[in-house]
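Regulatory protein VirG
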Amino acid sequence: MNMQMQTFQNCAPEAPASILIVEDDRDIAGMLAETLTQNGYAAVAAQSGAEMDRLLRRQSFDLIVLDVMLPGEDGFSICRRLRAEARTPIVMLTAVAADVDRIVGLEFGADDYVTKPFNTRELLARIKGLLRRASYGSERPGRRSAMTFAGWTVDPVARTLVDCAGAQVFMTTAEFDLLVALCQNAGQVLTREQLLSLTHAGVAGPVERSVDVHVSRIRQKIEPNPKDPSLIKTVRLGGYLFTPVVEAS
């Protein structure tokens, strides 16, 4: 178990990001808060969903680290509730290594997850990666142009997805990044590894299985028939193919 407090170079963003830790274990919460603070972030801890709600009523946060096992309302329920209201990146902490727990968290809207016991270097890398991905639309000139496909409009700068009627459709950070990558590589088969690379995830990104979960969630939002997808095709032993014609908006 390598959860001791560590300080690493170049982990802090240029402007401090605020992070909310929802963890009922006081030792772990304290260690995480201190580690994040020493790496340039503004960290606040809550021990339950109710305490988290009180903090969120007072201020907004750039990212939430959310434990699964909490007193009262569990992390899965909290994640689903948060996702109905905001797109704040969520990293879930789970003590269970089983894929089912990880997939459930992703299906409820988490952007990434870390299994306990965790290495603080890994968690910091994942946090830094998610914060970077949440804002990289304004950092990468090649991704500034809005794109249209099959009646949809994707704007990488505003980070919005709008349907043909002008209604905005909510997407998580990971879902939006994957959709942008698919749009910018329409007509090409992309492997899961390529999608991770194109979404700027690198070593901090979700594992291959989570790509499948996020693609499934995107299909639920944009496909005319998610059970028989026509826009995002699965290529056996290959990856995914985005079929629509994509044009600059």
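thats it. Residues 95 and 122 are 15 Å apart (CA to CA). Residues 140-248 form a domain with the Arc Repressor Mutant, subunit A fold (CATH 1.10.10.10). bye
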